[in-house]
Design brief:
With 105 residues, the chain is an alpha/beta fold. It has a single domain (3-102), classed as Glutaredoxin (3-Layer(aba) Sandwich). 35% of the residues lie in helices and 26% in strands. It has four helices and five strands. The chain has helices at residues 10-15, 31-46, 62-67, 94-102, and strands at 3-4, 21-26, 52-57, 75-80, 83-89. It has a five-stranded mixed β-sheet with strand order 1-3-2-4-5. The protein is globular.
């Protein structure tokens, strides 16, 4: 299951992670966000132990969204070694997200 990433746990779970990280920035009212949510959950199961997969509710955690300039959702950021390594804005097929994450392994 994808981790719930918040303003308070972001640094520990994302920036200090020894694994690549996929973060889905989303909101409850966002239709495309709901479309990719099941894909993010599938990826979290498939990459368990190899990557961290989490979700940031932008309405409840505006600090993180602001920090990374998130203006459109869904936006997915990929981190490696505490740095943003890749980005995807908008809903895309699962294989696009998997390819970006695998490139960081």
């Amino acid at each position: 299951m994808a981790l719930e990433i918040t303003d308070t746990n972001f640094d520990d779970l994302v920036l200090k992670s020894s694994h690549p990280v996929l973060i889905d920035f989303w909101a409850e009212w966002c239709g495309p966000c709901r479309m990719i949510a099941p894909l993010v959950e599938e990826i979290s199961k498939e990459f368990e132990g190899r990557a961290v997969v989490g979700k940031v509710d932008v309405d409840n955690n505006p600090g993180i969204a602001s920090r990374f300039g998130i203006r459109n959702i869904p936006t997915i950021l990929f981190f490696k070694n505490g740095e943003v390594a890749d980005k995807q804005v908008g809903a895309v097929p699962k294989n696009s997200l998997v390819a970006k994450l695998e490139a960081l392994l």
